[in-house]
Design goal:
- The protein is mainly alpha-helical.
- The chain folds into three domains: 57 residues, no CATH class; 38 residues; 53 residues, no CATH class.
- Helix content is 61%, strand content 7%.
- The protein is built from five helices and two strands; from the N terminus they run H-E-E-H-H-H-H.
């Protein structure tokens, strides 16, 4: 009897997950269609799910960092595009604090951060993190072991690039 209850529960959970996936897909299609009509600078519609046991599909406005041409370049432009309410300075300061805290948490919670040399170019830092994570997971080794193997090559490559900068 317990076996049947587990199977029924598994089937219900699977059906709920499939339903949520279809809901997310439909919401994403709607957001994509809406975003196609948007040009220039401004926010774009994003789709995701709430956290927790019973996630719900949600959508929100967000600046798309993957498209730099859509991002504001000044606080005045940001406040206009984001429709920041009065008092503008107070609200922008609140956004700055939230963003700073989020960025600090992201950096502090990154197990690879302590091995990244901040003098490396941003692209090298990003690639180093990705390679270490992928190697650690793929080879089933610790982050420390992956860093010990990969970091010397990165350090050497960065040093060579500094000695022989590309011709302009």
């Amino acid at each position: 009897m317990a076996m049947q209850a587990e199977n029924v529960a598994d089937l219900k959970a699977k059906a709920a997950a499939e339903l949520r996936a279809k809901e997310v897909e439909a919401a994403q299609k709607k957001a994509d269609d809406e975003n196609k009509g948007r040009e220039g600078k401004g926010t774009r519609k994003r789709v995701g799910q709430t956290r927790g046991k019973n996630p719900q599909v949600i959508s929100w406005e967000e600046f798309d960092e993957s498209k730099p041409e859509t991002l504001p370049v000044s606080l005045k432009e940001f406040s206009e595009l984001a429709k920041v309410s009065e008092p503008i300075e107070k609200n922008i300061l609140r956004f700055a604090i939230i963003g700073y805290n989020d960025d600090a948490y992201t950096s502090a919670s990154d197990p690879i951060a302590e091995y990244v040399d901040l003098s490396w170019p941003d692209e090298i830092q990003k690639n180093f993190r990705q390679v270490v994570r992928n190697y650690s997971q793929g080879a089933n080794v610790s982050i420390e072991d992956a860093v010990a193997l990969i970091r010397p090559g990165i350090v050497s490559a960065v040093a060579k690039a500094k000695e022989n900068p590309p011709a302009a």
